Amino acid sequence: MAGFYIPFTTKIKDKRVIVYPCVGLEKVIERSQSKSIENLLKQLYSKNEQLLKNGEYHIIILWDEASDDKSASTTDVMSDVWIFDKLESWGSGPLVDVKIFRNISPETNIGVSAGDGLLMLGREEELRRTSKSLDEYLNSIRAVLPEDIAAKVDFYL
Predict the structure, then answer these.
(1) pTM for this structure?
(2) For residue 27, what are the contacts with CB-CB under 8 A and spacing of at least 6?
(3) What is the DSSP secondary structure assignment for residue 157, as one 8-state letter?
(4) Which residues contact 154 (CB under 8 A, 6 or more apart)?
(5) Where are the alpha helices (DSSP H) in the chain?
(6) What pLDDT is recorded for position 11?
(7) Is residue 143 one of the residues assigned to a domain?
(8) Is residue 1 in a domain?
(9) What is the dihedral of CA 11, 15, 16, 22, to 10 degrees?
């Protein structure tokens, strides 16, 4: 099964974020532990303050990746932090950057996104553009995604 768990919004170090946990994340983050995702994100933002200080809001895709070492049975938590800035001053929509993290360290040897993430980001931008304000957008029900990747259950049990 591919796709996302139900996304949610939160604040991490005064930054408003939308979190999209991917199916499979349960291999690296405990679903039954309340706030396990939020705790991971607090560590990520604390360790990478300079990298993550920019932007008016962030969309974070959390996913799992198995170790390249086939003899190891480890799986890493991956965080794609999409940084949206200059919402009002950038003529063609917000200026967007992405920072990728393996566990809580920057990762530069991996691609920027997968198709599911790109579909979600496009739908989120459509939703933002039809919202009356950034607050309305961030506090609204999340974007409607294609059926094969749409969220069906909450990450937390």
Answers:
(1) 0.92
(2) 64, 75
(3) -
(4) 5, 6
(5) 36-47, 49-52, 115-130, 134-139
(6) 95
(7) no
(8) no
(9) -80
Token pair for residue 157? 């049990």
- Amino acid, single-letter form, for residue 97: D
In whole angstroms, how large is the CA radius of gyration of the chain? 15
CA distance 5 to 153: 6
70 contacts 93 by C-beta, under 8 angstroms: no
Domain ranges, residue 87: 8-114
Asked if the structure places residue 132 within a domain, the reply is no
Secondary structure E strands in the chain? 8-12, 15-21, 57-66, 75-85, 95-102, 105-106
Q: Per-residue pLDDT tens for 78-130? A: 999 999 999 877 678 899 999 999 999 999 888 788 889 999 999 999 999 99
116-133 confidence digits (pLDDT tens): 999 999 999 999 999 999
Q: In what order do the strands lie in the sheet with 75-85?
A: 8-12, 15-21, 57-66, 75-85, 95-102, 105-106
Overall number of domains in the chain = 1
End-to-end CA distance of the chain: 18
Q: Could you tell me if residue 92 is inside a domain?
A: yes
